[in-house]
């Protein structure tokens, strides 16, 4: 059954036509209204993503040019470039020199159906920030952790494993985030804890969405369990480099799984 949220998100993908400068006509690629609110690049990112998910733009199809996108959505070229850059980072599109930009993959419709309206780009960008922040946090935790820190991380890991694969996505996301907070605490740098705490809501929502998508795809939870275990073992063995790599791999894999780019491991 289609939810009201899904209907709201896909209502812009109508069968209208749009005439661009130079007389070119595009089918099924129109903006309901000019993009004028805050976070313009985020909004344009999500509108293009919706067209790809909806099928208005198929895999292998060429996107409108930057100039055409500016005209369609009434935004500046820097906004268009930032939105396209983010889509490239998520492996959804790719640019070919002298040819243009093409759709490389089609994320699952559940990605935009389940994501809170208007924040999909923010959720994915949070993963990018966490990649840098938590990779270094794991590195420092492996160097500086004390016995009590390791106990706290181990307890958080057990708590996380207890909720892995259960139907309680809210509690499961909190348990996952608690594991990461325990590692931040082990850095002995309060700014890591403070920064991660500031990301709590966005990070938790991203983790919750990832859990929901994994269950819909019937992805094995053992993959995520093993990623967390590798992080813990590297910290336990006081191996900073391995801890950093394990954390960065886990967070990047989570982001790629969310957009459907890492389904087979």
TrEMBL record:
Record organism: Oceanibaculum indicum P24
PANTHER family, per the entry: TRANSCRIPTIONAL REGULATOR, GNTR FAMILY, UXU OPERON TRANSCRIPTIONAL REGULATOR
InterPro entries linked to this entry: GntR_C (IPR011711), TF_FadR/GntR_C (IPR008920), Tscrpt_reg_HTH_GntR (IPR000524), WH-like_DNA-bd_sf (IPR036388), WH_DNA-bd_sf (IPR036390)
Gene Ontology terms, MF aspect: DNA binding; DNA-binding transcription factor activity
Keyword Lyase attributed: no
SUPFAM superfamilies linked to this entry: GntR ligand-binding domain-like, Winged helix' DNA-binding domain
All residue ranges annotated as the HTH gntR-type domain in the record: 38-106
UniProtKB keywords: DNA-binding, Transcription, Transcription regulation
Name of the molecule in the record: Transcription regulator
């Amino acid at each position: 059954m289609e939810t009201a949220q899904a209907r709201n998100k896909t209502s812009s993908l109508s069968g209208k036509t749009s005439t661009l400068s130079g007389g070119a006509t595009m089918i099924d690629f129109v903006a309901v209204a000019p993009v004028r609110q805050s976070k313009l690049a985020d909004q344009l990112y999500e509108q293009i993503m919706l067209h790809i998910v909806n099928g208005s733009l198929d895999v292998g199809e060429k996107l409108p040019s930057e100039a055409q996108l500016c005209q369609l959505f009434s935004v500046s070229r820097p906004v268009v470039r930032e939105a396209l850059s983010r889509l490239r980072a998520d492996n959804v599109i790719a640019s070919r020199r002298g040819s243009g930009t093409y759709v490389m993959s089609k994320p699952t419709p559940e990605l935009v159906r389940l994501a809170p309206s208007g924040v999909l780009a923010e959720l994915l960008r949070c993963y990018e920030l966490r990649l840098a922040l938590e990779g270094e946090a794991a590195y420092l935790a492996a160097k500086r952790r004390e016995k009590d820190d390791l106990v706290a991380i181990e307890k958080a890991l057990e708590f996380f494993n207890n909720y892995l694969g259960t139907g309680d996505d809210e509690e499961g996301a909190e348990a996952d985030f608690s594991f990461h907070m325990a590692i931040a605490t082990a850095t002995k740098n309060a700014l890591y804890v403070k920064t991660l705490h500031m990301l709590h809501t966005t990070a938790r929502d991203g983790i919750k969405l990832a859990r929901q998508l994994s269950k819909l795809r019937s992805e094995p939870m053992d993959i995520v369990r093993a990623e967390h275990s590798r992080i813990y073992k590297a910290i336990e063995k006081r191996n900073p480099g391995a801890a950093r790599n394990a954390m960065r791999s886990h967070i990047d894999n989570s982001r790629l799984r969310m957009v459907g780019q890492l389904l087979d491991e």
